[in-house]
Specification:
Chain B: It comes from Bhargavaea ginsengi. The structure holds two protein chains of two kinds. Chain A is globular, with a radius of gyration of 21 Å. Chain A folds into two domains: 124 residues, Aspartate Aminotransferase, domain 1 (Alpha-Beta Complex); 242 residues, Aspartate Aminotransferase, domain 2, CATH 3.40.640.10. Chain A is an alpha/beta fold. The longest helix of chain B has 23 residues. In chain B, a hairpin with a 3-residue loop joins β2 and β3. The chains are: A alpha/beta, B alpha/beta. At the A-B interface, α1, α2, α7 and α8 of A face α2 and α6 of B.
């Protein structure tokens, strides 16, 4: 099996599973309990939380463990918008955000917030001039993802942050679900104030993620109950999930820049360059682990099926939308030509891949292209 | 703009005459110690400034955070060092400003010329810089008083240091530069604050804690370890002495009428603390007592308790209100830990009617009912000692995470 759909989800790392099992057995107590077992579970939770903040470059910051990236994004958007109403009711998000952000907009608008979207160029990167134009002193929250899940385009967070700081008091959130452990998140003062991460994108366990903030930034809860996690997310805190997330983040962070993803990606870009019908999407500076290409005149689905017959797994654009027939909002926003737009496949690397997988992929893809030429 | 240097200005210690070098060396060692895990950081000290240099921008960011907690620093600035010639200084200033938002900001150039061989006088350099920069950044508005952007140019023998930001330091004197004392640390809100304030005056601290199992839990001891560890972030390493106090507390209950048990218990603590102080060679005892706050802190109580020793007992909180103490505790990050709800050895045996005006002679009379001397010696000899901060290897979770 060659699994190239790591941006959809990754195979959990044995070391992460090991942490999950050991923590589940040894620290099963409720971390809110006063007895020793509870205290020990709470200490593990506190250490995990510290490590998560540190790895995010936000030492001493606030960590809210969530059920995954979507909840972290929802919490950031609603929690920060509601908590910073006094600053203003204007929110800005990029046009290529994950649906966890974009589909929250109608609800935010119902609550009286005004939401603007920031344009992207053909390279899939946001238009900083458009951001600058739309920022006002009443902008209270800006959310710009770090690496786009469909194209791998890296967004200029530091430059965006500079504009945000200069023109508003807005809290700056970034969905770093695709970037954590692959592309370094800027930690300077212009970097984001808050980021979302998800465990299963970094060889962790599904159903677990976190919102990490430099400080509380007025965040309000969106789940109510026993006031766990300083009231920011009610619900018994899953200690083993928290520990496993911290471990997955450490393993991923240690890999930054070491995995040969860029080499593989560049090799594939050169390889695809030989095909007239194939267009590589996104800029050269894109994240090294995601490569999207568009094939002229066919549906992406056909390529997915053909590769699958040879036990190679890729996806059409993003997994979240690949089963729906709707056109990708990201490709639309980037202005990909019509005859290419339906033939997009995404290849994304992970820890379990090797050089051999790339070679094998090229063989199979060449055969596939020969087949469609004949049709 | 990525900075690679931090210019550190000394506080009060610039005044300290011939002890100056001792103070500077102490400060330098303290800074080196808190940056030990940042491999590219180097610290060098000079007569009136200290410089922290790092190749990694991320380490500079981290150092900027940590320096805020170091005593003996008046202020510090992330800085860029360049060759001390006019052209290079101009270029460097240009680079710094082009990385900043200058739109409509008020601006001033300030020059310090420690190296008097530099060809331009202070005023001349100021004028040159203004004439060069203002046409390049036409949105800057010159303002001499309280400008939003203050470009500081410090001409020194090894180059020119340019900075635009000054961060307030913690003040005080370098921890460990002013002698050694023993802090009585209970786990409440006050004693960590007392320790902090004395460390700020340059004291090196050991701490002593009284533990009465099974009446006090392991968690309440852990809490005190955490507090002591937090304090160690402000200066030198801290040794913590834990005294097993159960036997003595029970003996006090038997020997003394209930209204006086609190006073006697405190006297025993003070005696033990004084014995430990003697063994470790410290010169004073520090407590978090604040006049009138509770029954043991009335003037009569303080006097009856103090009667057991001639050692100076430093009480930095004696004249402070509770709310002011709490606000310092919050600032130094001990408050959240202090308010965790565990029983401590003082609350367990608290009588319902403690004497607020105990008579020392009566207290001494009742204490004659038991032979406390050997018990005290035993408690001192059997104390547990640990050194804080705990090493990372001691982290029981390191394998899991």
């Amino acid at each position: 099996m060659i699994y190239f759909d790591n941006s959809a989800t990754t195979m959990p790392d044995d070391r992460v599973l090991d942490t999950f099992i050991k923590s589940s057995k040894a620290f099963f107590a409720n971390p809110s309990s006063l007895h020793r077992l509870g205290i020990e579970a709470d200490r593990l939770l506190a250490r995990a939380s510290e490590q998560v903040a540190e790895l995010a470059g936000m030492s001493g910051g606030t960590v809210v463990f969530t059920s995954g990236g979507t909840e972290a994004d929802n919490l950031a958007l609603f929690g920060l918008a509601r908590g910073n109403r006094a600053h203003g009711k204007k929110i800005l998000v990029s046009a290529i955000e994950h649906p966890a952000i974009l589909r929250s907009i109608p609800q935010l608008e119902k609550e009286g917030f005004e939401v603007g979207t920031i344009r992207v160029g053909r390279d899939g990167v946001i238009d900083l001039a458009d951001l600058a134009d739309q920022l006002t002193s009443e902008t209270s929250v800006v959310s710009i993802m770090h690496v786009n899940n469909e194209t791998g385009a890296i967004q200029p967070l530091e430059e965006a942050g500079g504009l945000i700081r200069a023109k508003s008091r807005a809290v700056f959130h970034s969905d770093a679900v695709q970037s954590f452990g692959k592309v370094a998140i800027p930690v300077s003062e212009n970097g984001p104030d808050a980021i979302s991460v998800s465990a299963h994108k970094i060889h962790g366990i599904e159903g677990s993620g976190a919102l990490i903030l430099k400080k509380r930034h007025g965040l309000e809860a969106i789940l109510f109950g026993g006031n766990q996690q300083e009231g920011l997310r009610s619900g018994t805190v899953p200690v083993a999930h928290a520990a496993a997330l911290a471990k997955a983040m450490r393993l991923a962070a240690e890999e930054i820049g070491r995995a040969p993803y860029a080499e593989w990606r560049n090799g594939l870009v050169r390889y695809f360059g030989d095909f007239d019908k194939v267009m590589v999407l996104g800029a050269e500076e894109n994240a090294p682990h995601i490569l999207s290409v568009a094939i002229r005149g066919i549906k992406g689905e056909i390529a997915v099926n053909a590769l699958q017959e040879q036990d190679i797994y890729v996806s059409t654009s993003s997994a979240c939308s690949s089963r729906s027939r709707k056109e990708s909002h990201v490709l639309q926003a980037m202005g990909v030509p019509d005859d290419y737009r339906h033939g997009v496949i995404r290849i994304s690397f992970g820890r379990m891949n090797s050089e051999r997988d790339i070679t094998r992929f090229k063989e199979v893809f060449t055969t596939f292209m020969e087949t469609i030429e004949r049709v | 703009m990525m900075y690679h240097e931090i210019m550190i200005r000394y506080g009060e210690l610039s005044l300290k005459g011939k002890n100056r070098n001792v103070f500077i060396r102490k400060l330098r060692d303290n800074i080196r110690r808190i940056t030990k895990d940042l491999p590219s950081v180097k610290v060098k000290s000079e007569h009136d400034r200290m410089y922290l240099i790092a190749d990694e921008g991320r380490e500079i960011q981290e150092a900027l955070e940590r320096l805020q907690d170091v005593f003996g620093i008046q202020s510090f600035s992330p800085a860029v060092r360049c060759r001390a010639d006019l052209e290079t200084i101009k270029e460097t200033a240009e680079r710094i400003l082009s990385g900043m938002d200058t739109e409509g900001k008020t601006f001033k150039v300030e020059v310090r010329r420690a190296d008097k061989t530099f060809p331009l006088k202070t005023i001349e350099l100021q004028q040159e810089m203004g004439a060069h920069l203002l046409p390049l950044f036409p949105n800057l508005i010159v303002k001499m008083k309280k400008p939003e952007i203050r470009l500081l140019i410090d001409i020194r023998e090894d180059g020119a240091y340019l900075s635009t930001k000054t961060i307030q330091g913690a003040g005080g004197l370098p921890a460990g530069s002013n002698g050694h004392a023993l802090l009585m640390l209970s786990g409440g809100i006050d004693s960590p604050v007392a320790g902090y304030l004395m460390m700020k005056r340059g004291l090196k601290l050991d701490v002593i804690h009284f533990h009465s199992p099974p009446f006090t839990s392991e968690q309440s001891k852990e809490k005190v370890v955490e507090l002591a560890e937090r304090l160690s972030a402000f200066g030198t390493r801290i040794r913590m002495h834990t005294i097993h106090f159960t036997e003595i507390q029970q003996a006090v209950q038997d020997a003394v009428p209930s209204a006086l048990t609190m006073t006697t218990t405190r006297r025993m603590m003070m005696k033990i603390a004084d014995r430990v102080r003697e063994e470790i060679g410290a010169k004073a005892i520090v407590t978090g007592e604040s006049l009138g706050q509770v029954a043991s802190q009335t003037l009569s109580s303080l006097s009856a308790i103090n009667e057991v020793t001639a050692t100076p007992v430093l009480r930095p909180l004696i004249a402070m209100d509770k709310l002011d103490i709490i606000s310092i505790a919050e600032k130094i990050g001990t408050y959240e830990t202090s308010i965790r709800p565990f029983e401590d050895c003082c609350t367990i045996f608290t009588p319902s009617n403690p004497a607020t005006k105990p008579r020392t002679d009566k207290v001494i009379y009742y204490e004659g009912n038991a032979d406390f001397g050997p018990m005290i010696e035993k408690a001192v000899a059997e104390r547990e000692v640990i050194v804080l901060p705990l090493k990372k290897d001691d982290d029981p979770f390191s394998e899991l995470l």
